[in-house]
Amino acid sequence: MVPSQTHVMLKWQEHLNSSWAAEDSVQTATRHGAAALYAKLVYNKEVVGLAQPVQDLMGPRLPDFQYESSAEEEKEEYLSALLHSQRCLAHRMLARTPFALSLHHRLVILQRVFYALHSKYHDRFRAPLPPQPSSSNAEGGALESVSEPWPTGSSRSKSGTDVLIEMGVRTGLSLLFALLRQSWQRGRLENPPDVALCNEVLATASSVLAALPPLSLANENKIPTVGLDCLTQVGDFLKKTAVSGSGADRAGRRLSLELLLSLALQRGSLRFLLEWVEVALAASASSTTSETVGVGYELIHQTLQQMRQHT
Fold it and tell me: Is pTM, for the whole model, over 0.90?
């Protein structure tokens, strides 16, 4: 049921921008369509109702006319406060009429769609402002130009801290992947517990990813460049691991496929889902009959349910 109030708080959720960008704003032309879209906002808790203040409904207190010198001023103040209280009461009652509620629904929905379109398309192609040359004032002093902060993923010159963070992340991931490959190779030859340890690392990463909110990685504009590079590096490692001949055992290849599917689902793009299908077909084609790698039906069914729920 759509709440019949206009005193609300708006909290847009970034992972729903793609869904709202695909909505047809023409639905707001009808009262039924606007109410349905507004109910979607309420269901996703992007619109939260607030308690209305009660001070305006109490009305002004009648002053004590003790002094004749200030009686006229007190009367004027009392009448002004009384008119203000009546105006607030009338505004509150008019805001509950069907026309006012429908207008409120349409404005909030259009605001949500505009925010989704702006966040999905315009932020991605926003060009950084060119630095303004310093000019001199009449006294010969230099005026420093204040520029806007650079957006995420821009082609600005990286600072020393950014370079150190990127180097540490890249080095750490490369070391982790090398250790996993080495442990798989050694485990299949002489030490089976090493294989179980590698698979436990993949299972832990899969459980951490499953605990995230849906479509947490869908808005790439909010992910820094280092994060996007890490996602690409992890995806490449999982693709190579899922294919036969990578050194991983059957359980490791299956966990790699499941983790790659979870990443594609969190990124919310058809491109990543098609890439996963291609990797799954390649893994099935490269496997022998006794070592066929497949993802469980339960995970596929759960993935399809999540896609239907958030489409």
Answer: no
